[in-house]
């Protein structure tokens, strides 16, 4: 008799879960092929049904249980209700088959509400009353964890002949279905498979060794990546076993074209091209390689510096041009220069003409359309407007200071004052001919262009219209202009210094451009390319206004978390910072700290 | 009567392209106030630094009651964070407050606040540091920051 367990009967059972399931199926059917939810929140279509065992031998007094599962279009198992039928014997709604007539029959499992089905073959044999032993094959067996193996059993009769028999399968270390299909668990070790005859009088046991899956492959992800110079990418290396499973396994990283950390963080170098990152297993000789392409970021902006410059007639200003990429990185760029009001060389050195006024310098991208323009204000010679003690370039400024009383104005001439370190008297005023025209050049020797000396310290000093550059101070972070001593800025400081229209650039270890004291004003200055910071210091009532502060710590001499960048002021009261342009510092742009 | 004055005012500056080399955590900001009370930051244009405007709450051994991030008032700035500036620890570009003192009152009890700033943001999900995490603009506003601010993506 063929028995079909109908949907109508299942619903009649009133099983809450089944009813809910059926309702879902019915609702889904109205829109076409039913779907099932997945853990990812998406839905998959049912692609197939698989039932087990696929083949079995049973005896006429024996029952076996079939199971079935759905396979989604993504290849995942999915819960599916199975409708069971058999071409002989009888099968329950739960898939339990019994047959009383010998022969061969088929069991069909069909997904409820679908046209997907699978078929098993069952051979029904008579019990063997003269059974003396059972022989299970293979004997012994080895199975990789998570994999399957098929076992078969035959009977030996008292006359020495062999006959097919039905057995009951059991196993350790995994599961085994009614057809002898063993699925190893994930624990390696020694286990067993047992076949017992239906009357539980004869059995055979075979040893099964479940082995650990072997590392078969190293996988490095991502397989390809494109970076800009200096860009970073986190790589991940893991293992894949012979069974296709992913596992964590220790790897070491190596790279070309950049550096890679022990944790797999790759930092691209500055050279463009195609490079590679390699993850190598530390326990085997397996490895995987990813391709890294380093290519320049698209140039988004051309930046000409200084953006604003003031220079006396006949004076010079050094311009520099940078490119900024879409990634925000800056790099030295090639440009062609043009200028009004003076002349400019191919390397960016502008020489002011003889006419005062406002002019411009233009840098145009080579081979492109980008450009940037800076404003240049050419001022009439200041010598006539500076009334005081004239000091020609090369003469000793300190000597003049020493020979004059407090509150003297010193007019510094055009040219370079080499390796001069000045300790002013209170009220002294130092007026140059303009930034880039009057230059105090430390030539990378130890010294400070202006500093406070020893107590009593000079207060109310004004320094304006000049350049200080290339002073080194190996004893601490003093400035090339220091209105306080870094050794103890809370007690060794001046008050009321004004630093106006001063270019402070290219200080050496470990000097700042300017160190402020109490009541220091820094205005209209161009403070750039200094060792640690453009400015720093401690003091009340400090005013920072209308300055351009750029490219400080450009050689990455200090970690930004320590002190590096545009400025860092510590323990100030009433600090005011306004109308400044801070850019491209290698560190914090503007930092106030307690 | 003693009236507490602002210890620092940072206003009307243009701050761009800073901190892009060797940045991490809050270090790399265009404008940074660290363990410093009474800092007001307003009217600045802060564009594509490694971090935007950041306050750091750390404990200073010298005088922990005085040198502390409080009354940090950041308002009416324009902050652009459309560049990619993710450090080795995975922290992206952002504006807000970070702390390493184990003290959540930097966010809830020290009058530190961001008000009516305008932000230009990139494609990352979160650009704001608050309550020890990186927050979306919706979370940021839910914490009471820049409720009247603008966020342009």
Structure description:
The complex is a heterodimer of chains A (594) and B (153). By secondary structure, chain A is mainly beta. Chain A is built from 3 helices and 59 strands. In chain A, a hairpin with a 4-residue loop joins strand 5 (67-72) and strand 6. The longest helix of chain A is centred in the N-terminal third of the chain and has 14 residues, at 16-29. Residues 1-44 of chain A have low confidence and may be disordered. Chain B has one domain. The radius of gyration of chain B is 14 Å and the shape is globular. Chain B starts with 7 loop residues before the first strand and ends with a strand. The relative contact order of chain B is 0.17. Strand 58 of chain A pairs parallel with strand 2 of chain B.
Write the topology of this structure.
The complex is a heterodimer of chains A (594) and B (153).
Chain A: H1 7-12, H2 16-29, E1 35-37, E2 43-52, E3 55-59, E4 63-65, E5 67-72, E6 77-78, E7 82-86, E8 90-91, E9 96-98, E10 103-111, E11 117-125, E12 131-137, E13 141-144, E14 148-150, E15 152-157, E16 162-164, E17 167-171, E18 174-176, E19 181-184, E20 189-197, E21 203-211, E22 215-221, E23 224-227, E24 232-234, E25 236-241, E26 246-247, E27 251-255, E28 258-260, E29 265-268, E30 273-281, E31 287-294, E32 299-305, E33 308-312, E34 316-318, E35 320-325, E36 330-332, E37 335-339, E38 342-344, E39 349-352, E40 357-365, E41 371-379, E42 389-391, H3 397-402, E43 409-412, E44 415-418, E45 429-431, E46 438-446, E47 462-472, E48 479-482, E49 498-505, E50 512-516, E51 521-523, E52 526-528, E53 533-537, E54 543-545, E55 548-550, E56 565-570, E57 575-578, E58 581-583, E59 588-593
Parallel strand pairs in A: 3-11, 13-21, 23-31, 33-41, 42-43, 43-45, 44-46, 45-47, 46-47, 47-49, 48-50, 49-51, 49-52, 50-53, 51-54, 52-55, 53-56, 54-57, 55-58, 56-59
Antiparallel strand pairs in A: 1-2, 2-5, 4-9, 5-6, 7-10, 8-9, 10-11, 12-15, 14-19, 15-16, 17-20, 18-19, 20-21, 22-25, 24-29, 25-26, 27-30, 28-29, 30-31, 32-35, 34-39, 35-36, 37-40, 38-39, 40-41
Chain B: E1 8-11, E2 14-16, E3 29-34, E4 39-42, E5 45-47, E6 51-57, E7 73-75, E8 78-81, E9 95-99, H1 105-108, E10 113-115, E11 118-121, E12 128-130, E13 133-135, H2 137-142, E14 150-152
Parallel strand pairs in B: 1-4, 2-5, 3-6, 4-7, 5-8, 6-9, 7-10, 8-11, 9-12, 11-14
Antiparallel strand pairs in B: 12-13
């Amino acid at each position: 008799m063929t028995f079909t367990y109908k949907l109508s009967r299942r619903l009649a059972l009133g099983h809450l879960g089944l009813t809910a399931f059926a309702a879902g199926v019915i609702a889904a059917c109205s829109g076409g092929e039913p779907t099932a939810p997945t853990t990812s929140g998406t839905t998959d279509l049912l692609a197939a049904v698989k039932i087990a065992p696929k083949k079995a031998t049973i005896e006429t007094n024996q029952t076996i249980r079939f199971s079935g599962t759905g396979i989604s279009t993504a290849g995942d198992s999915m819960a599916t209700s199975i409708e069971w039928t058999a071409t002989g014997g009888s099968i329950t709604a739960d898939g339990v088959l019994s047959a009383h007539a010998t022969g061969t029959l088929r069991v069909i499992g069909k997904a409820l509400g679908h046209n997907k089905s699978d078929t098993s073959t069952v051979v029904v044999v008579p019990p063997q009353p003269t059974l003396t032993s059972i022989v299970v094959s293979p004997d012994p067996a080895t199975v990789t964890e998570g994999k399957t193996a098929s076992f078969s059993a035959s009977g030996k009769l008292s006359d020495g002949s062999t006959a097919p028999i039905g057995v009951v399968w059991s196993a350790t270390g995994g599961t085994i279905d009614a057809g002898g299909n063993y699925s190893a668990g994930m624990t390696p070790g020694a286990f067993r498979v047992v076949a017992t005859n239906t009357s539980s009088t004869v059995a055979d046991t075979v040893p099964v060794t479940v082995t650990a899956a072997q590392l078969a492959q190293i996988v490095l992800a991502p397989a390809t990546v494109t970076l800009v110079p200096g860009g970073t990418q986190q790589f991940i290396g893991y293992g894949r076993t012979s069974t296709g499973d992913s596992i964590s396994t220790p790897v070491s990283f190596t790279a070309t074209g950049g550096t890679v950390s022990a944790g797999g963080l790759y930092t691209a170098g500055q050279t463009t091209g195609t490079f590679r990152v390699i993850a190598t297993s530390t326990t085997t000789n397996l490895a995987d390689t990813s391709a890294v392409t380093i290519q320049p970021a698209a140039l988004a902006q051309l930046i000409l510096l200084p953006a604003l410059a003031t220079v006396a007639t006949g004076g010079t200003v050094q311009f520099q041009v940078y490119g900024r990429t879409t990634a925000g990185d800056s790099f030295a760029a090639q440009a062609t220069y043009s200028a009004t009001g003076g002349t400019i060389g191919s390397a960016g050195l502008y020489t002011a003409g003889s006419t005062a006024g406002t002019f411009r310098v233009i840098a145009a991208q080579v081979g492109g359309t980008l450009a940037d323009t800076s404003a240049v204000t050419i001022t009439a010679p200041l010598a006539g407007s500076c009334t005081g003690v004239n000091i020609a370039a090369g003469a000793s400024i300190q000597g003049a200071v020493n020979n004059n009383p407090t509150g003297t104005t010193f007019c510094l001439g055009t040219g370079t004052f080499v390796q001069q370190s000045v300790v002013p008297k209170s009220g002294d005023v130092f007026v140059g001919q303009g930034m880039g025209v009057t230059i105090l050049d430390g030539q990378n020797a130890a010294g400070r262009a202006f500093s406070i000396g020893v107590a009593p310290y000079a207060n109310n000093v004004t320094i304006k219209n000049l350049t200080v550059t290339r002073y080194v101070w190996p004893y601490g972070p003093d400035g090339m202009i220091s209105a306080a001593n870094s050794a103890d800025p809370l007690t060794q400081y001046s008050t009321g210094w004004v630093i106006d229209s001063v270019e402070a650039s290219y200080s050496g270890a470990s000097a700042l451009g300017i160190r402020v004291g109490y009541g220091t004003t820094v205005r209209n200055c161009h403070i750039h390319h200094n060792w640690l910071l453009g400015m720093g210091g401690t003091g009340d009532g400090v005013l920072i206004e209308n300055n351009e502060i750029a490219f400080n710590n450009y050689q990455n001499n200090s970690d930004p978390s320590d002190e590096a960048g545009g400025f860092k002021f510590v323990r100030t009261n009433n600090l005011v910072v306004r109308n400044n342009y801070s850019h491209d510092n290698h560190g914090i742009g503007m930092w106030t700290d307690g | 009567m003693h009236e507490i004055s602002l210890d620092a005012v940072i206003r009307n500056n243009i701050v761009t392209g800073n901190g892009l080399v060797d940045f991490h955590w809050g270090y790399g900001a265009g404008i940074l106030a660290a363990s410093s009370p009474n800092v007001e930051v307003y009217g600045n244009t802060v564009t594509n630094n490694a971090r935007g405007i950041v306050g750091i709450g750390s404990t200073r051994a010298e005088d922990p009651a005085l040198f502390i991030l409080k009354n940090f008032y950041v308002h009416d700035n324009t902050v652009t964070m459309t560049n990619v500036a993710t450090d080795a620890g995975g922290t992206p570009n952002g504006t807000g407050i970070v702390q390493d003192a184990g003290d959540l009152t930097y966010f809830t009890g020290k009058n530190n606040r961001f008000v009516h700033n305008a932000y230009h943001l990139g494609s990352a999900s979160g650009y704001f540091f608050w309550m020890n995490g990186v927050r979306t603009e919706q979370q940021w506003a839910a914490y009471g920051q820049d409720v009247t601010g603008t966020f342009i993506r």
